Amino acid sequence: MTNNYEDSHLQDDINNDQSLEGLQILVVDDNEDSLYLTTFILESYGVQVTTATSALEALEVIKNFRFDILIFDIAMPKVDGYSLIRKVRQMLLLQKLYTPAIALTALNSDDSYNLAFLSGFQSYVHKPVESNILIAEIKKLLRFAAWENGE
Questions:
Q1: Is the pLDDT reported for residue 149 higher than 80?
Q2: How many domains does the chain have?
Q3: Would 6 be classed as within a structural domain?
Q4: CATH number at residue 88
Q5: Which of 18, 81, 132, 135 could form a disulfide with 74 if both were Cys (CB 3.0 to 4.6 A apart)?
């Protein structure tokens, strides 16, 4: 059941004039099709996308580059998205950096939702990715990050 109040706020987030042009986003997903779809959506909004197919690859990339937003799949082999975001939060805390993160998952339970936020994510987007929802969440996180930084 859709909620008209939520739908109108989603439309507001998509339609606001906040540009995503030049934004640096890291997308981590072990599923090639999902990685391609997410990258395609983001690049169509002018986002500069860096990709990784594992948590270990992502950690190496994060050591060398600064991103505006992180998007991590939850269900990855060896090191899952929950563990990855905890490691990234520790790493960025040492550097005194704050980078908002979105959990990307096909899991649809209250437990996975709660664990995502407890692990260090600020948003939760279901697979298959819908462009309007992903873009609205990114814009919401950018506004929050700007507010957190006093901008």
A1: no
A2: 1
A3: no
A4: 3.40.50.2300
A5: 81
